[in-house]
Amino acid sequence: MFTYQHFIWVGISVALIVVSLILLKKYKVSLKTLLTICCGICIASELIKIFTMIEIVPNEAGTAMYPYIELQHLPVHLCSIQIILIFFCRFAKDSKLKNMIYGFMYVTCSIGAAFAIALPSVFNTTITANQAFTHPIAYQTFIYHAMLIVLGLYIPMSKEVDLKFKNYWSSLLILALMAFCSIYLNSLFATVVYKDGALMSVEHVTNFFFTYIPPIAGINLTLKWHWFVYLGVLIALAFVLLFIFYLPYLIKEVKEKKATREA
After folding, report:
1. Rounded to the nearest 10 degrees, how much is the dihedral formed by the CA atoms of 196, 197, 198, 203?
2. Measured torsion, CA atoms of residues 135, 141, 147, 149, in degrees rounded to the nearest 10
3. Full 3-state SS string of 170-222
């Protein structure tokens, strides 16, 4: 993270995003068509991740070997969950639920994927910076997240989705529920060490939704109140960043109500 290889990938990602949005707008590509393309990218992305990261690991007795993919690669991160939502929006009929999902994707694809590109955990947990252009997982990571940003930004740009400020509240609720569930999942997937029936330590802890460990290296949460403060920061960021994205809709609705009263 924050190496010259990382900055090159950030530049490539920004270029892909800008060029993609210009072409989508120029040729007036429908949101359905873009979702179809995204479905294909999602399938390719997951296949690359699985077949690149899967390992053949022996059992404890050394008598058998099994294919295994580490828990950190499970599709339970915010950006990975978007795969399900992309397929849902592509094939589901128009409904209030679909509009709510679009509103959620508009902010979480844009913001979440931007953070993933700016703070790529792949360089800390999976590959080294020297493998940034030789390992397939680097291409999968940055291209997939660039695609999410394009999709998130194009949802309002396409003018095919009727977003309202109320989508701000529904998006916060969905995000809060997912983050809350991640606390259980992170504990469920951790390797727990007991001694005489007492909890001593945990190993191989996952960090879905970053609700356990800050994404920036060097920040250690050693006391419970540290974690509470960290959660407070995450909650505040969610409220503020999502509000910024929905502020134009709030202003628009206020102006419309004012115009209606004056008419």
Report:
1. 100
2. -140
3. HHHHHHHHHHHHHHHHHHHHCEEEEECCEEEEEECCCCHHHCCCCCCCCCCCC
- Report residue 11's pLDDT band, with 50, 70 and 90 as the boundaries: very high
Query: What is the model's pLDDT at position 253?
Result: 94
Handedness of CA 205, 209, 215, 218 (dihedral sign): negative
- Tens of pLDDT, residue by residue over 175-209, are 999 999 999 999 999 989 998 889 899 988 899 99
Q: What pLDDT does 87 receive?
A: 98
Q: How confident is the model at residue 258 (pLDDT cuts 50, 70, 90)?
A: confident
CB 58 within 8 A of CB 65: yes
pTM for the complete prediction?
0.94
d(CA 248, CA 254): 10
Residue 98 and residue 167 in contact, taking contact as beta carbons nearer than 8 Å:
no
Is residue 34 a contact partner of residue 42, using CB atoms and an 8 Å limit? no
- What 8-state DSSP symbol labels residue 75? T
- Residue corresponding to tokens 């609700």: 211
Residues 143 and 141: their CA atoms lie apart, in Å, by: 6
**Token pair 């330590």: residue:** 201
pLDDT score of 1: 67
pLDDT of residue 124: 74
Nearest Cα residue to 38 out of 161, 175, 150: 150
Nearest to 121 by CA among 14, 258, 1, 246: 1
Which residues are paired to 202 by β-bridges? 192
Q: Which residue has the tokens 């010259």?
A: 4
C-alpha dihedral (48, 83, 240, 180), degrees to nearest 10: -100
**Residue 155 identity:** I
- What is the phi-psi region of residue 190: left when phi exceeds 0, alpha when psi lies from -120 to 50, beta otherwise? beta
